[in-house]
Design brief:
Layout: E1 4-8, H1 13-24, E2 28-33, H2 58-67, E3 72-76, H3 82-96, E4 101-104, H4 122-150, E5 153-158, H5 178-198, E6 203-209, H6 216-230, H7 238-250, E7 261-262, H8 263-269
Parallel strand pairs: 1-2, 1-4, 2-3, 4-5, 5-6, 6-7
Helix pairs in contact: 1-2, 1-7, 3-4, 4-5, 7-8
């Protein structure tokens, strides 16, 4: 039986790249996110310079993954709705029959996420708490029980340097605000708890910091010129996706659970990818 990877936030960026990497490696997929069909304006969604929603949908990624031989199931997931997270997990198990890998990649991207400390509203913190702390917990808890019964499972929590260090400058000057940093800090703590409590039942859990990744969302945030200015300090989405796949398939002893995996230096150290340019068709 083929293994199944469930990827949240799979409509574009790192999630899309992970879906295509796992499909190419022989996994079946459950793709979770809000964008089931063509892009549409949704509350708390990012828009491009033209004011329109960023392109990408679960359906289009599913079509690409099926071309690579994967069975693909799409489920709705709204991180601001805890019931949605639990229902997504139940649908994944019902439709795919099992989940062997869970990649917690989806994020809340409201324009208030990096509000300055003096402007930060309690409502923003409540949304961040729901999206970064509560919903991932509900989804993970629903799936990790069946994984433990299978005797194996991998959970990858996509974090950020913002959750583990102080901003170099204010959010207004290109750093990050308290809400985003606090949200990612919560993500960074989940893997260690899973390892301590469920590692003996075959569950591996990783915290992955992808670094600066040149996604559509990043371009919408800092612009094309900002991305060009990053130069060698960034990587395309297929790099962290390849590291995720490597951890699932190569680190069977769970050696790299002990610390946050920094995807870009890790990819170079382990020679996970041959080169940084986008792979053909990816």
């Amino acid at each position: 039986m083929k293994q199944v990877a469930m990827i949240t936030g799979a409509s574009r960026g790192i999630g899309r790249a992970a879906a295509l990497a796992f499909a190419s490696a022989g996994y079946d997929l459950v793709l979770a996110g809000r964008m089931q069909g063509d892009a549409a304006q949704r509350q708390y969604s990012l828009t491009g310079a033209d004011g329109k929603p960023l392109p990408g949908s679960l359906g289009s990624v599913a079509a690409e993954a099926r071309e690579r031989g994967a069975r693909v199931f799409c489920v709705h997931l709204d991180l601001l709705d805890g019931a949605s997270a639990e229902l997504a997990a139940d649908q994944a198990l019902d439709q795919a029959g099992r989940v062997d890998v869970l990649i917690n990649n989806a994020v809340y991207q409201g324009s208030d996420l990096n509000a300055s400390l003096l402007d930060l509203q309690v409502e923003t913190l409540q949304r961040v708490s729901q999206a970064y702390l509560i919903s991932p917990l509900l989804l993970t808890r629903r799936l990790v029980g069946p994984m433990a019964q299978q005797g194996a499972g991998v959970i990858i929590n996509v974090s950020s340097g913002a959750g583990e260090s102080n901003p170099p400058v204010s959010a207004a000057r290109g750093g990050w605000g308290y809400a985003y940093g606090a949200g990612k800090a919560a993500v960074s703590r989940l893997s260690g708890v899973i390892k301590a409590e469920l590692g003996h039942r075959g569950i591996r859990a990783y915290t992955l910091n992808p670094g600066v990744v040149t996604t559509e969302a990043l371009e919408a945030t800092i612009g094309a010129e900002g991305i060009r200015a990053l130069g060698a300090g960034s990587a395309p989405p297929h790099v962290p996706a390849a590291v995720m796949l490597w951890l699932c398939r190569q680190d069977t002893a769970g050696t790299y659970q002990k610390r946050t995996v920094h995807a870009q230096p890790f990819a170079r150290e382990q020679q996970v990818v041959d080169e940084w340019s986008s792979p053909s068709g990816g």
